[in-house]
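User: Predict structure, ligand iron/sulfur cluster.
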Amino acid sequence: MGFSMVIDLNKCIGCQTCTVACKRQWTSNEGQEATWFNHVETKPGRGWPRDFHDMTPPAGVYAQQGLKGRIPMLAESGGRWQFDLESLKPGRYDPQKPLAPKTAEKGNAPDWGPNWEEDEGGGVFPNSYFFYLPRLCNHCEEPACKKACPRNAITKRDDGIVLVDEPNCRGYRFCVEACPYKKLYFNPQLGISQKCIMCFPRVEKGLPPACVGSCAGRARHFGLLEDPESPTHRLVKKFGIALPLYAEKGTQPNVFYVPPFSATGFNADGTPNGQQRIPMDYLKELFGEEVEQVMATLNAERAKKARGEPSEIMDELIRYTFNEAWKLPAEEEFGKHV
Ligand code: SF4
Ligand code: SF4
Ligand code: SF4
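Assistant: Predicted complex:
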């Protein structure tokens, strides 16, 4: 329990404003070229780092059989991208050669990176589909990264925020191996691991995390999971319409997702078949069996709204006033909650 985030995949437009807001705040230093505490990938797809889901077995298996995860290779992340910003200057700018990244390792064009599969999608026309999946550290209830660190350099605060104690870290990267979501990053400049800090310096001042406050789609909700007045409590606990990603990994994430609707599919003769284009089996792969019930609830509530009937759930998701998307303890009250 503690701070939690809910991301409504029906409202994420893949604009990466959150990604840039986070990068500008926390990871724009040397050594952090391949560090994205937040990124948004397009689904279906192999994700970032490539096939990250297959790199670490579920936590139970990890513990019982001693099976370890593995550290993503730099190639699986796409390397450290570099941009020749000088080429944008007047006199040097060539519209035929738009700003394109090169990798710091080989100096050639990268062949993978965050959201490499942008808008590629799945399905066969006219039943094609895609959606966006923002990803950050889940500030897990049972953080695999914390358990794996032999120096106890990862802590989970009483308010749920998971942090690397950087002065104590020696860069062994057992945490990177263990995290099923591959959301820790080795900083070669400093020789330590780094991760999302849930914007704790902002949160302690009563501000939402940068990725939440800047969300152009108003897709993100933030607050204490146990607080009945928090939007995340209502979405996860009261309405039960937000689910964690890859729950089978066993780390009990505190980031949850409202699963995506999709347009109706078509029969071969071009008539609508009334089926959602995103296959339910694919949604189950991501969000588990419960997603079927969640989709049924969301569809029923959406139908109510379409008929002009009230729907508390849809009103919560529409979020008429953006700053109601988060609820934070007042600065002077913060110590009582954490
Ligand atoms: S997502 Fe990974 S880095 Fe974040 S708390 Fe969970 S195990 Fe640790
Ligand atoms: S909570 Fe803060 S540090 Fe974490 S991904 Fe969002 S902006 Fe980045
Ligand atoms: S800012 Fe919001 S809408 Fe844009 S990509 Fe991030 S989560 Fe999605």
